[in-house]
Amino acid sequence: MELGRKWVQLVIAFLTNGYWGFPVSRTIYQGPLKVVCSPGLNCYSCPAATTYCPMGALQQLMVSIRFSLETGHYYVGLYVLGCIGVVGSFLGRMVCGWACPFGFIQEMLHKIPSRKWGVPRILRFFKYAVLFGMVLLLPLFVVSEFGLGEPWFCKYLCPAGTLEAGIPMLFLRPELRGTIGWLFYNKLIIMIFFIIWSVLASRPFCRVGCPLGAFYALFSRVKLVKLQLDEAKCTQCEACHHVCPMGVKFNESPNDAECISCMACMNKACRFDAISLSVAGIPLRTTEVVKAKRAEG
Amino acid sequence: MEKQPVAEKKRSVKEKRKIRILPFVVLTVFLFVFLAGVLTGEPSRVLEQSWQICLSCIGIG
Ligand code: SF4
Ligand code: SF4
Question: One Pfam family for this entry, by name (chain A) (predicted)?
Answer without folding.
Answer: Fer4_5
